[in-house]
Specification:
Blueprint: E1 4-6, H1 9-17, E2 24-27, H2 35-38, H3 52-58, E3 62-66, H4 72-80, E4 84-88, H5 95-107, H6 113-133, E5 140-145, E6 151-152, H7 159-165, E7 169-171, E8 187-188, E9 200-204, H8 215-221, E10 226-230, H9 232-236, H10 242-254
Parallel strand pairs: 1-2, 1-3, 3-4, 5-7, 5-9, 9-10
Antiparallel strand pairs: 6-8
Helix pairs in contact: 5-6, 6-10
Length: 255
């Protein structure tokens, strides 16, 4: 019998989109979508502070983890419990294709509706990518902030950065962070010379909840940039939000 614990917020939402909600028996406290779906599902801690004892008691057949969000030692402990651990690591919009394939491989045989729902999401993703890639976008230099004290941004090999690149928005600094680790989300001193050359400065709604009160602080970092608050879930959550995120991003670039 399928019993799924999801330790990845965007994948939890994806499982429900695929019709697998009735088989989800555990989630993290950050797995908040869809609200009505997850409300009665037990929490097993945060993405990086799991309650392994509670997970064991829930007896999962499958546990979904993510390279960025979950700790390697926790993944090892989950495997020792005997659960099948599904490791996800989308680093670009098109990686959602592989993510959907993973879900079908693990669950479609027992829940055939998964294939139908996955096919719908695949069509939407291809359409959204096609809309982005059918246009020649002017290149823009972008600072995408996810945290303050210290200011933190994203490396170019992250999902967020590669989403932004679909509309010609190139994140700064121009560095790769590697497969995992803190280097994927560089901290800034705030006095880097290149900050004055930014065209766009985007303040994400997550994981730090930037708001109107932060606009002037951000503008001081890059006086010549256009500063905007953006929906971090649409730009960083994969799965069912990927196509909507690309549509949202296209709208930002055209405005």
């Amino acid at each position: 019998m399928i019993r799924i614990i999801s330790l990845v917020p965007s994948v939890t939402e994806l499982l429900f989109s695929l019709g697998l909600g009735p088989w989800v028996v555990g989630r993290t406290g950050f797995c908040i979508h869809p609200p009505k779906g997850v409300d009665g599902i037990p929490k097993v801690g945060g993405t990086k502070d799991l309650n392994l004892q509670k997970i064991r008691q829930l007896g999962p057949s499958h546990v979904v983890v993510n390279v960025d969000e979950n700790r390697l030692e926790d993944v090892a402990a989950l495997r020792q419990m005997g659960a099948e651990v599904i490791v996800t690591h989308p680093c670009a919009p098109e990686d959602n294709l592989q993510l959907l394939q993973q879900m079908m491989e693990h669950f479609a045989q027992e829940v055939p509706a998964v294939r139908t729902q996955a096919a719908h999401l695949l069509r939407r993703l291809h359409e959204a990518l096609g809309e982005c890639r059918s246009r020649a976008w002017p290149t823009r230099r972008v600072l995408y902030l996810i945290w303050r004290d210290p200011w933190m941004t994203v490396a170019r090999d992250t999902y967020i950065s590669r989403m932004l690149a679909e509309v010609g928005w190139w994140t700064w600094p121009p560095v790769d962070g590697g497969e995992a680790g803190a280097a994927r989300y560089p901290a800034l001193a705030g006095d880097e010379p290149w900050l004055k050359d930014m065209d766009e400065l985007l303040l994400s709604s997550e994981p730090y909840r930037f708001g109107p009160q932060h606009l002037d602080l951000a503008q001081a970092l890059s006086p010549h940039a256009r500063v905007r608050l953006v929906d971090g879930e649409l730009l960083s959550w994969y799965g069912p939000r990927a196509a909507d995120g690309l549509d949202y991003l296209r709208g930002l670039a055209l405005s």
